[in-house]
Structure formats: C-alpha cells, structure tokens
Hints:
Blueprint: H1 3-26, H2 34-47, H3 58-80, H4 98-110, H5 117-131, H6 134-143, H7 148-174, H8 181-193, H9 195-206
Helix pairs in contact: 1-3, 1-7, 2-3, 2-5, 4-5, 5-8, 7-8
Transmembrane segments: 55-78, 98-115, 121-140, 152-170, 182-202
GO cellular component, one term: endoplasmic reticulum membrane
Family: Belongs to the ERD2 family.
Amino acid sequence: MNIFRLAGDMTHLASVLVLLLKIHTIKSCAGISLKTQELYAIVFAARYLDIFTNFVSLYNTVMKLIFLGSSFSIVWYIRHHRIVRRSYNKDEDTFRHLFLMLPCLLLALVINEKFTFKEIMWTFSIFLEAVAILPQLVLLQRTRNIDNLTGQYVFLLGAYRALYILNWIYRYFTEQHYVHWITWIAGLIQTLLYADFFYYYFQSWKNNAKLELPA
C-alpha cells in the first residue's frame, strides 16, 4: 500500500458516497446514467469472483464488499425505487452499453495473462471499466446542465483512475518485476476519456460558473 493507491481508493469511495448521497438524500438520479451503473456492477461482479476464496487483507475484502454492494444498490435505486426512478433520464440515456461488453469479452479471451476463467473475467472487468463511463459522458453532453453532485461524482471517478496511474508508476520504480501492460493501457484509455470533462469542470470552477458540457 502506498499513498497513491490509498488516495485512489479513497477518491473512488468518495465518488460512490457522493452518488449515494444524491440518490438517497435528494431522492433523485437526474443526470445519472443507469447504463454506466449497470456496467460498473458487472465490472465488480466479474473482478471480485475470488472475494471469498482469496483473502489478501481485511482492507481489501471490505473495499470489495463496499464496491459490490454499492454498485448493485445504485442500480436497484434507479430501476425500482418508487421516487428515485421517476427522475431517471430514460429518453436521453440511450447509449447501447451492451455493445461495449462483447468487444471487451472477446478482447479478454485473446489478450490475457493466463487462460483461466477467473483470469479472463478479471481481464474482462479491466477492459470494461475503461469504457464504462461512456454512457454517463454521453448523457451529460445531451443534458448539458449538470448539477453539482453529479459533476463531483464524475470528477472523483476520473481522479481515482488518475491517482491509480500514479500508483502504478510508483510501483514500477519501487517493486521488481512490476509490469502489468493490460491494466496500464486500459487505465490510460479510461483517464483520457475524462479529458474533455476535466477541461470543462476546471473551467467552471475557475469562472465560478455552472458546469455545462457542449452538445
């Protein structure tokens, strides 16, 4: 564990808490893409298949349970909560997210470190996480006006991945034989997808204006 890994985990956790705060307290999921949340639920389900068979540490297990539980809870809130589901932007959240899953799965079958079920599912989750934010970004471009909590949620998600890149760089120079090209390339692609959002987020912060993305 290093400071970049810890900061990345805490930023990721903060993004989840911000989204749950918005949904549970305000009883609204306006501006939140159900498609992205479903993809994240699949990402964590595929990645943490070993949660009860491969104990690393209490911290590791608790974080896995938090991300699994929160991702499926968010999907349930948006789909089934009698108040929250009314605010869901169904007509604008039309990104065909299932078409992201098949290429990621095929890529995981071809590019992996070990051809086993768990390893393929782990690799699939890495590839899918890299593009899972796309439906959310498309929805924000369509709605344009973004409330503060939604903007903070997406910003924290992007910051989490950027901090993990720093974590990988740190480990590369401090640990022998630490080379994970699959994770590095997927993480870089994921961070680059946030570049446009980051630009407009900092512009709105700098000008003390409401965050608004171009159509």
